[in-house]
Amino acid sequence: MAKTFRLDHPKQRADLYIQLAALERAGIAPIQALAMLDPPKTEDSDQLLQLLRSRLERGADWVETGRRYGLFTEFDAALLGAAATTGSLARTYQQLSEHYDAQARRRGQIRARLALPVAVLVLAGLIQPVPELVLGRVDGLGYLKLALLPLLPMGLGAYALFRLPAWFRGGALSPFRAGFDALLLRLPTLGRYQMRRNLRDFWSSLALLLEAGVPMLDAFPKALGTVDNLVLRAQLAPAERALKRGGDLASALRALPWPGPPEALSFVATGEASGELPALLRRYAGQEAERIARFDDALAEWLPRLVYGAVLALMAASILGSGAFMPSAALSAL
Questions:
Q1: Per the UniProt record, which residue ranges are transmembrane (predicted)?
Q2: Second-level CATH architecture of 188-293
């Protein structure tokens, strides 16, 4: 398999595109820009840059070559290919940078919100066996065993939960992905927001593609590919066939058992009638992003409280059950 650049984190792509936008605005050609880029350093990165540069020197297409070597994703390459024909590469680089920067911020916020509950959980695990140590029932090594052994399965469980989506997408559990995606959509409240997150990505991607000049027949399947949930993607897929038969997007979506908020279809119909579909889709995607952010904030506010309550209850039950602070336990210890 040919080696490619590894840009696994959205922040890496955001940084790449902001550099490319600045260089494009300065009139620096891609072949000269390569010497100024700073992709993630790996043992192959210098070699890949040299290969990329040599292909460009031989007249290869910049966007297609970048896609081939992993500098651009399939979705990004579709956007950039259309932008290159219209002379709007700098603007598209900027849009992609903002797109990936928003993804990186969302990931960072989730990590920040999880940090304190995790710290409290670890602290609870360390405090729980303290009564046993105070009463002399265990020595220092025994205390560490009591403290760390329960944390190990919890840590492994948290890691498995974090990696579960990736395992279903492309790992050993991928044959069960459709069932997993269907289960996600059925979860109370969380399922509805899982659906809205996927549709937000779809609308945002479709707006970017249309703004870059990609025709609807080409833009729709590429935007559909950003829908991560397979069940939801299958529900939207028949609209592509309707578009190929010459229908408009609003009619194609209304013919489906539409899973999302009905106002989305109103935005589509208005956009197509007014000739401003990309702008209205971008506006609607932004409104959805705000609604989802408010839900995330509410979830981030209440979930730690539930975790803290459970931890405190566990600690209290452990301390009281040990008898460390009961008169009889104190006398027997003497």
A1: 114-131, 143-162, 306-326
A2: Up-down Bundle (1.20)
